[in-house]
Amino acid sequence: MITQRLFHGTKVRLTGRRPDDAAIMAAWMEDDFYPRLVDTDFARPVSADSLAARESDADASHVSFRIRTVADDRLVGFCALFNIEWNNRSATLAIGIGKAEDRGKGFGAEALQLLLRYAFMELNLHRLSLDVISYNEPAIRAYRRAGFKEEGRMREAVYREGKRYDRLIMGLLKSEWQPC
User: Quick one: which of 143, 142, 139, 141 has its CA closest to 129?
Assistant: First the structure.
């Protein structure tokens, strides 16, 4: 018998795309810090049309969700599994919380747990990986709490404001995951 809700936590829930999401997420990309947390490419504003065009529900190697608050159904972030290799039962994970005032409230950590449960229990994946920039210490702590282990480091791979930062490569096996 199924006992756990697949997409719902106590603070957030995972949903599909909605028509207004692209405009909200494009506004996040205009923030001075957000694009530097979720991507290693150079930061730049992105239009809502461009964001909407990037996603396709027909791509079997990519599953994406929106993170919405349970309390008021407000869009606060995104999470995704991409580069899914069904034969190897592996995927890469990405997650981001858009506005600075929504970070540090447990939304990302809970969404991460929901995404891990989905990946391991629904999709039957064996391995997840991610990469994170070394200055994103809150994310690194959340990934470690979730069981991710550092598997490698791309030294000085990211250049920001005149400084070089490492990219940490992290991984989690289904056998290491401890469901919450």
Answer: 143
Residue 45's nearest CA partner among 37, 34, 59, 58 is 34
pLDDT per position as a tens digit, 81-116: 999 999 999 999 999 999 999 999 999 999 999 999
* Number of Cβ within a 10 Å radius of residue 141: 11
Q: Is the pLDDT of residue 55 over 80?
A: no
Helices 137-145 and 107-117: angle between axes, nearest 10 degrees:
40
| Confidence (pLDDT) at 56 | 60
- One-letter amino acid for residue 104 of the chain: G
Q: How far apart are alpha carbons 177 and 165 in whole angstroms?
A: 28
pTM confidence score: 0.91
Strand partners, 168: 132, 153
Residue ranges with strand state E in 98-175: 127-133, 149-160, 163-173
* SS3 assignment, position 174: helix
pLDDT > 90: percent of the chain:
73
CA distance linking residue 23 with residue 40, whole number of Å:
22
Q: Walk me through the domains of the chain, giving residue ranges and CATH numbers.
A: 12-126 (3.40.630.30)
